[in-house]
Design brief:
With about 200 residues, the chain is mainly beta. The longest helix has 8 residues.
């Protein structure tokens, strides 16, 4: 397919002094999206992991506050760089991926917050659903070499894993616990307009 010459400027618009994407339906590009988490280990260091199976849809509305997001993550795709730890995370001690193969996030509200956004939604982990608020930044838009519009977003939040029933831990002889309760979640998302949307984007 010959790349189009759509100007990048036509992919965004001004909304209350900040740039937002033009309306449309955008599918998350899993190959250019990362969903990562950071957990305290032994009270002295941090372990970073990621999920390699992620899909979803971002619907940008005419009124940005009416936009919505849906994301599905394959829990078994967890990767921390250590096979034994990954297997433990998939087990019943943590994610129980045989029983709960997917995590989901469904937005319930979108609100502008200065130059960024607060996206509230329901996060389901291992069959337990709780509300969370994501701090979201729109990173911009561009055309792919194949003539479709692509959007970039970054997002983050912090959760208490025990609220989702992930209570496994070990007490250390010197005090404290092996795994911290607070988990930071960081997302870098690229989403591409669906073919029917690309022409208007």
């Amino acid at each position: 397919m010959t790349p189009t010459t759509t100007p990048t400027a036509t992919l965004t618009r001004d909304h209350k002094g900040t740039q937002v994407p033009v309306p449309g339906v955008y599918d998350i590009d899993s190959k250019h999206t990362s969903v990562e988490f950071v957990a305290r280990h032994l009270m002295i260091s941090k372990v970073r992991g990621r999920f390699n199976d992620v899909e979803g849809t971002i619907t940008v509305a005419d009124v940005p506050e009416e936009s919505s997001v849906q994301v599905k993550i394959g829990a078994a795709s967890v990767s921390t760089g250590e096979d034994q730890r990954d297997a433990h995370l998939r087990s019943g001690d943590f994610f129980d991926t045989d029983t709960h193969p997917h995590w989901t996030f469904t937005s319930t509200a979108v609100a502008q917050d200065g130059d960024g956004w607060k996206v509230t939604g329901d996060l389901t982990i291992s069959g337990v659903t709780k509300p969370v608020v994501l701090d979201v930044e729109f990173e911009g838009a561009n055309m792919t070499p194949w003539g479709t519009a692509a959007l970039g977003f970054s997002a983050s939040t912090e959760i208490d894993r025990e609220q989702w029933g992930l209570t496994y831990n070990q007490v250390l002889e010197t005090g404290g616990v092996m795994v911290g309760k607070k988990i930071r979640i960081e997302l870098s998302v690229e989403a591409v307009a669906r073919p029917q949307e690309a022409a208007t984007a």
